[in-house]
Amino acid sequence: MVRVRVAQDPTDRQACFAVRRAVFVVEQGVSEDIEYDVFDEPEADTVHVVAVDAEGAPLGTGRLLHGPAAAERTGGDLTIGSLGRLAVLRTARGRGVGLALVQAVEEAARDRGLKAVDLHAQSHALGFYERLGYVPYGEEMTEAGIAHRSMRRELHG
Q1: Distance between CA atoms of residues 119 and 39, nearest Å
Q2: I need a labelling partner for 115 at 20 to 30 A (CA). Which of 13, 134, 154, 156 fits?
Q3: Within the chain, how many helices (H) and strands (E) appear?
Q4: Res 157: pLDDT
Q5: Average pLDDT over residues 138-143
Q6: Using one digit for the tens of pLDDT, what is the confidence trace for 25-62?
Q7: Which pTM does this prediction carry?
Q8: Which contiguous run of DSSP H or E holds residue 60?
Q9: CA separation (Å) from 118 to 58, 72, 132, 144, 155?
Q10: Which of 44, 43, 26 lies closest to 35 in space, CA to CA?
Q11: What is d(CA 78, CA 127) in angstroms, rounded to the nearest whole number?
């Protein structure tokens, strides 16, 4: 069983950061210096979500930037949020955790009145996001030494 919730306290946020460290820093070799940023501060315009198993152990995380925090990634359009830092522990992959996290981020975006969600998908994950209704646009780019592509999904209802 997987439960996803908005990170509410420092313990939840630390669980999010631990998952990101395991996936991005250890597994993918991203420098810790660029993995964590000002949007991880409690006062930032962000929503962190955490997926946990039945015992409460963290399985995955994701982050929604909204308002001014998202403007750089959305062309300045404050009605679009930015999904990022989506990470699922290797042992939890293939169990619907990523889907549940994306849905939780989209729900948080709707709750804030956003009309769409943008993201920068690692190129190997394009198919995952396309199955969820995200459409790629623009040229491939490199972030943290990894090929990415911009994608967007319009939110309805």
Answers
A1: 15
A2: 13
A3: 4, 7
A4: 63
A5: 92
A6: 999 999 999 999 999 988 788 999 999 999 999 999 99
A7: 0.94
A8: strand 58-65
A9: 25, 11, 13, 18, 11
A10: 26
A11: 27
**Helix (H) / strand (E) containing 32:** helix 32-35
Q: What is the CA angle 114-66-33, rounded to 5?
A: 150
Give the residue from 9, 8, 7, 30 showing the smallest Cα distance to 20: 30
* Residue owning tokens 């623009």: 138
Contact 153, 134 (CB under 8 A): yes
Cβ neighbours of 95 (radius 10 Å): 16
Which pLDDT score is estimated for 73? 85
Q: Which tokens go with 14? A: 């630390």
The residue type found at 128 is F
Query: Mean pLDDT throughout 9-25?
Result: 95
What is the amino acid identity at position 28? Q
User: Can you give the length of the chain in residues?
Assistant: 157
